[in-house]
Write a structure and sequence with these properties.
Distance between the termini: 16 Å
Order of helices and strands: EHEEEEHE
Strand content: 35-45%
Number of strands: 6
Number of helices: 2
Helix content: 10-25%
Strand order of the largest sheet: 2-5-1-6
């Protein structure tokens, strides 16, 4: 990675929209300074999901945040504690760019 850009770890979480408030609280607890949440749609092992937030049923969101490697470790560890009855996937990747 280049030294001319900031470096961090992008954590992406795709989950049921009913988990949104719980995720926001977790991010705040971990000291995350910012995040982005968008409605998404797709299909997977938990079936087909829509991105229509108006329906509020069977909907998914995508949460993205850029954090330090240590915070990404903590976040993924906490996400493992979410019940398996919820549709949730999370992954991380090293990124560089224009962010604080």
């Amino acid at each position: 990675m280049s030294d001319s850009f900031n470096q961090g770890v992008l954590v992406t979480i795709v989950c049921e929209s009913v988990l949104q408030e719980r995720l926001i609280k977790l991010l705040i607890t971990l000291g995350v300074s910012g995040y982005t949440i968008v409605p998404v749609q797709g299909a997977g092992s938990h079936g087909r999901r829509t991105g229509d937030m108006m329906a509020a049923y069977n909907t998914n969101i995508e949460v993205k945040t850029i954090v330090t490697p240590e915070v990404s470790d903590q976040l993924l560890k906490e996400l493992k504690q979410f019940p398996e009855t919820y549709a949730l996937i999370a992954f991380r990747e090293n990124v560089e760019g224009l962010f604080n």
